[in-house]
């Protein structure tokens, strides 16, 4: 099978998922790529246009071991008549949860054929200088693996004559007890709303423009608590460092994160 065009869909408030997907696409060496960036709310319509390109690549970060919940309406509305799809989950070295399984279920129900999948590690959204979690990931080695994954996808696709031949096994992910019992958006229990220090802020408005939930008031720069998902895009994109990540229940949170972050995890590839 020869493929010439790709649609690439991603959500990436702090940029690690985007980096991984770009490296995969580079490895695939496709001529015609159409990107759909779901990071800002105006792109997350719940009635996606049908995918016309030869292959779809979807990349999402892992939030509370699942797909970030604001993405479900868009993802469920994707339509295809027997197109190939590649699934990518990027997680903060704590746990990749069931994201690949969820993406597989959703896309197969919409008529896609899952040809490849992978999980990669990205710097954790809650990572700070004092509590670094997967700092600097994806690193050079991760990006080389992502490019290599892209090349292998193309090689696999070339060997396919009929879509019926494709059957990809993705192991059942693990949903830890914490993820089952904690309420949705439990990130709010563990971290404070990252309000701006107005003595440092120069009111440039970058945080307002880039907030994936439109949760920041453009005049006061205050965050609407109920809308904030703690992605910390506003912290990481602020050139003046006017906002910071502050843990609530610091001792407990640091202990949990450090325990789960002990071992540096590696990308996993399913082809
Ligand atoms: C609300 C929230 C929940 C998260 N939950 C998990 C998790 O369950 N496991 C994990 O390893 N990382 C988790 N992360 C970290 C992100 O998956 C990780 O930092 C990812 O690289 C962010 O992608 P981005 O840079 O494209 O935004 C979470 C991040 C946020 C903001």
From TrEMBL:
PROSITE patterns: 4FE4S_FER_1 (PS00198), 4FE4S_FER_2 (PS51379). Keywords: Iron, Iron-sulfur, Metal-binding. It comes from the Bacteria. InterPro entries: 4Fe4S_Fe-S-bd, 4Fe4S_Fe_S_CS, EFR1-like, Flavoprotein-like_sf. Residues 192-221 form the 4Fe-4S ferredoxin-type domain. SUPFAM superfamilies: 4Fe-4S ferredoxins, Flavoproteins. NCBIfam families: ferrodoxin_EFR1. This is EFR1 family ferrodoxin. It comes from Clostridium brassicae.
């Amino acid at each position: 099978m020869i493929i010439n065009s790709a649609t690439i869909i991603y959500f990436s408030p702090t940029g690690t998922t985007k980096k991984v997907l770009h490296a995969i696409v580079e490895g695939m060496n496709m001529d015609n790529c159409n990107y759909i960036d779901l990071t800002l709310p105006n792109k997350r319509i719940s009635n996606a246009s049908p995918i016309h390109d030869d292959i779809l690549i979807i990349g999402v970060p892992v939030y509370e071991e699942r797909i970030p919940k604001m993405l479900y309406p868009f993802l469920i509305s994707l339509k295809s008549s027997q197109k190939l799809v590649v699934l990518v989950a990027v997680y903060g070295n704590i746990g990749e949860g069931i994201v690949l399984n969820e993406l597989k279920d959703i896309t197969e129900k919409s008529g896609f054929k899952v040809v490849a999948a992978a999980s990669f590690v990205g710097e954790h959204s809650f990572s700070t200088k004092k509590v670094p979690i997967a700092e600097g990931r994806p690193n050079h080695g991760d990006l080389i693996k992502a490019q290599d994954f892209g090349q292998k996808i193309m090689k696999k696709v070339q060997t396919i004559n009929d879509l019926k031949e494709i059957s990809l096994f993705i192991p059942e992910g693990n949903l830890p007890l914490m993820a089952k019992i904690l309420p949705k958006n439990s990130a709010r229990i563990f971290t404070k709303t990252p309000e701006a220090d107005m003595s440092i802020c120069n009111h440039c408005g970058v945080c307002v423009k880039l907030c994936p939930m439109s949760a920041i008031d453009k005049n006061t720069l205050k965050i609407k608590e109920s809308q904030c998902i703690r992605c910390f895009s506003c912290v990481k994109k602020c050139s003046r460092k006017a906002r910071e990540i502050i843990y609530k229940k610091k001792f407990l949170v640091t202990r949990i994160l450090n325990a789960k972050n002990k071992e540096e995890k590696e990308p996993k590839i399913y082809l």
